[in-house]
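Box 3.1 — From sequence to structure: Dimethylsulfoxide reductase
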Amino acid sequence: MADGSGRQTRVTSSHWGAFEVDTEGDRIVATRPFAADPDPHDVPSIVPAAVHHRSRVARPSIRKGWLETRTREGRGSEDFVELPWDEALDIAAEEIDRIRKTHGNEAIFGGSYGWSSAGRFHHAQSQAHRFLNAAGGYVASFGSYSTGCAQAIMPHVFGVNFIQFLYEHQDGWPTIHDNAETLVMFGGINPKNSQVSMGGVTEHETAGWFEKFRAKGMRLVNIGPQRTDAPEGCEWLPIRPGSDTALMLALAYVLEEEGLTDHAFLDRYTSGFERFRPYLMGESDGTPKTPEWAAPLCEADPGTIRELARHMARTRTMITLAWSLQRGEHGEQPYWMSVVLASMLGQIGLPGAGVGYGYGAIGGVGKPLIGLNGMTLPQGENPVGRFIPVARIADMLLNPGAAYDFNGRREAYPDIRLVYWAGGNPFHHHQDLNRLHEAWQRPETIIVNEPWWTATAKRADIVFPATTPYERQDIGRSPLDDYLFYMPALIPPVGEARDDYDIFAGLSERMGISETFTEGRTSDEWIPLLYAQYRENAAGKGIEVPTFEDLQERNWMRLPIRAEAPNRTLLAPFREDPEGAPLPTPSGKLEIFSEVIDGFGYADCPGHPVWLPPQEWLGAAGEHPLHLVSPQPGDKLHSQLECALADIEGARPVALAIHPEDAAARGIADREVVKVFNSRGACRARAALTGDIRRGVVAMPTGAWFGDPGGNIDPDGNPNVLTLDVGTSRLGQGCSAHSALVEVGKLEA
Ligand SMILES: Nc1nc2c(c(=O)[nH]1)N[C@H]1C(S)=C(S)[C@@H](COP(=O)(O)OP(=O)(O)OC[C@H]3O[C@@H](n4cnc5c(=O)[nH]c(N)nc54)[C@H](O)[C@@H]3O)O[C@H]1N2
Ligand SMILES: Nc1nc2c(c(=O)[nH]1)N[C@H]1C(S)=C(S)[C@@H](COP(=O)(O)OP(=O)(O)OC[C@H]3O[C@@H](n4cnc5c(=O)[nH]c(N)nc54)[C@H](O)[C@@H]3O)O[C@H]1N2
Ligand SMILES: [Mo]
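Predicted structure (token representation):
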């Protein structure tokens, strides 16, 4: 709507939900919550300051030393030279051509991991992949930082890919509400994290469901290092991070010891319990996994463990695991063991019972919706066909040609000469950033499309300024949400920014691959075309969506796709008829023992779930005695919008939650700026004393922009200067961000 003052208000969508935006001329001036959101949050309020921030990349920029002599030296410290678009595109196209002709396309790393922005067409990572495919392919990456480890292990257990499991098996909130009596939440369920969803979540419901759970008298148990990982009013069992498998084993032991195991379920629906049981009971290794055995490992009282096991067996119980549990060393084990525990309870496949993953991790999990496909820009074929597990990037760059294991395959790391990144911030998301900084010196050329001068952009050789979603039109839609948005171009591009599509179109033209990349279309021609396909798909499912022009006019609409019944297409039919609807596993059943995994011969992930302590956890604490967890930030998405948040007086360095007794032992006062350190690095943080974190654990959110390389102290507090860069195991090779030991001390010390 326009009013007399020239101010306009429209709605747009983002990963953190829809919001109203006021513009005046070429500026965003204010934002307001979207009216239909029952639980909006204030992330959008920082958008105006971030979009017009001084840290926007104004013009195409090439690092001075690279421009002059193509030297790799100076990444992260040297100045950039601004160039006109044509010149910069000529240089970049020539360089990509040189690399692919000299070294082949397997010398190009284009995994380009990252969340980019919401909006179906201008999804930067998809654009980068389509471009690199048109150019002859690239080395890709498997899985996500979010769930890479689960994506590798869980198909062995359930037979389907993990993402499909999340959305096709897991019960919706209404089913849990109507049926579950007990919710046992490993790592909690945090409404703060469900503010966010890939592509946007419009109605934030998680907090509301917990109010209903409490009103109904459900027993809600939060198991993990922070009380605040679950809404208020939940019981809290503050176990050590990384010890969940030990606790689950002890719960399983009690079931078996007290005759509470559902053996009929195990016989009918699972395979391999007889191979697991001797381990559980200690017959194979001399160590029965009793509550007394687990007590010192997870620091939970044996009586509490026994009581919880009996209660879980007596009531309809849903076990949930945060994704964080598999972002730690041996993250495969709690995920696999949770299936064994739920199987022993015998409730898998019943409504509101069994096991589920990532409720609360992102807003869409638990929303029962009818799936609607479409609105995806085709990415073409990747002729290279090589990939690395996503979190193994530093290993790859540091060790070209070296062999590594992944999920039964033995591969060699490719020799990467050129890295192209669009829509991600590896100097936010990767572990042990000082190590990544070293690895990052190896490629000949690094090209980054970015709206802002992030730590990654600053470490590139060529930086192309990209638009933000507020500067281009798009369609906002997520398969996990029941709203549809026309996202208008609210303001013109800031500085000389261009859409990723136009950047890649410009490169394609110069490389003679324009026809493959653009197919002769501009983005304004692609968007209505993809939308029309989506509309047709929806019509096929009996769902009417407006024409593109109508949607432009309406700005947004609610889709009638709430499913009445839960989306339980996998395990409910299996429970009903295990022979007729077997699981696509080798045994057709839930695999408690996996012959396939056993056949890999991995000591760090054997044929059934086992307790394997991480190399860094409280059970191994020495010189660095505190366990650092680095959860997702509540004030933003990852490192996005950080530039403007960091401007707020007193907001940086970021808060470090620490128990008052741990603080007192170090003479640290509340709000004091401290140094957090280990042998990998050091950063500043502001101590936040709280009894809501267990002793011995400190928590620091991700997302502060990484500052100085090398031995210096990172000023704003990026926890990834401290985290451990190892794979979860040879099976999953996921990221191990949550397994890290640190010490906290006075800043001047
Ligand atoms: N220690 C620790 N580390 C972690 C985690 C943890 O739990 N602990 N979690 C991990 C997880 S789960 C994840 S998913 C990752 C997230 O890591 P990332 O997804 O890499 O983080 P973002 O900050 O979202 O990075 C997106 C980047 O894309 C840019 N961008 C946005 N829109 C556009 C666009 O239209 N075009 C272009 N070219 N760029 C755009 C943004 O400015 C930003 O720099 O972090 C991981 N890192
Ligand atoms: N506001 C906001 N929400 C987000 C994001 C964001 O950046 N901002 N990012 C989104 C993304 S990409 C993802 S993948 C999800 C991630 O969702 P999750 O993986 O669920 O989230 P985390 O915040 O990493 O961790 C949740 C909690 O797990 C606990 N924890 C850590 N290690 C352990 C352990 O070993 N055992 C137990 N029991 N608990 C442990 C920590 O106390 C932590 O607070 O969040 C999404 N939601
Ligand atoms: Mo993630």
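Summary of the box: The longest strand covers residues 681-689.
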